[in-house]
């Protein structure tokens, strides 16, 4: 079957060309459409960054207002789609609820699923950006048994999401601008990261010409895994385990280094960043600011800082070039904001959505795109003869 090269985990195989996100893992550089992540984190907003990723340029004031206006007209869910949430068990994890609801969008918008019709792709893009925060908030409300709030389209995307998540009917929800800004920043930092596991999934599913909703739903499922987006939840669970355990932080690190029961220091290491993760550098300061304000020196933050301190000075981590990644601190921030642990990966999904959309659109618009179909190296039996069951 010709020459095939084995590259499990695709550590050295480019699956596409892309003009969206640039990463230099050795230098710790991340840019969206050429703009350094540090500048976007400081000066842009999630909605503007979404526009940049999807359309390739920063919007003019008119373009931005139009984009926001269109999104705000599509934030509501079809009443029948709302019914879906009642079908899940009360303790359902919000990630599979999120992917199921996004998959179900294909059934509600059957007239706009053609990947090659620009207008249909455009309206699907707007619907996804508008509805995912509503779906996410409802997944949470369902899990705590509270009523769903309709979106309030006078609010920004992030304000609306916070109100639908934490607000209750007939009671004013006071919007804390610092909280809005912090959530917005976290979403910007997660907005794209080139060909990671979930984005590659979105592209691979989309390469069969599956529609945008189907492709993004698959991406959400890929993000759910603990080695990918699930890591922020895993970090917090790890910190809580250490806090309650009868072993010390230092003893935990010994377990990690001895690879006891396959335990890893969650929130450390990255396939591409071998120097530092620039997102982690930005988020670390935010973590300290927010935790100082809300929890007054949270004990879990102390454990996290001790883990980091040990790791950065230890040969095991130095030799393997393991540094804190974006997820090492985000869990602590989300927790102090009042999000339950199970919502952490949902927040990652909200942030990554514009990246998935941008990458799917780039793939569909590229005339050289072929269906993704990796090869394999077969290591099974050679040809052998069938033996009837009575003779085995
Ligand atoms: N703790 C302890 N050892 C580790 C860790 C860790 N977090 N990460 C990697 N190693 C070791 C690994 O055991 C291996 O050691 P050895 O050479 O002795 O076999 C070596 O470092 C190389 O690791 P790898 O698994 O071959 O590296 P990878 O590029 O396949 O994996 C990773 C990258 C992110 C999956 C991995 O570092 C990991 O599992 N980290 C913890 C989970 C995590 O934080 N994930 C979030 C990633 S950032 C956000 C996102 O993109 O989702």
From TrEMBL:
PROSITE patterns: CITRATE_SYNTHASE. Pathway: Carbohydrate metabolism; tricarboxylic acid cycle; isocitrate from oxaloacetate: step 1/2. It catalyses: oxaloacetate + acetyl-CoA + H2O = citrate + CoA + H(+). Pfam families: Citrate_synt. InterPro entries: Citrate_synth-like_lrg_a-sub, Citrate_synth-like_sm_a-sub, Citrate_synthase, Citrate_synthase_AS, Citrate_synthase_bac-typ, Citrate_synthase_sf, Citrate_synthase_typ-I. It comes from the Bacteria. Keywords: Transferase, Tricarboxylic acid cycle. PANTHER family: CITRATE SYNTHASE (PTHR42871). Belongs to the citrate synthase family. This is Citrate synthase.
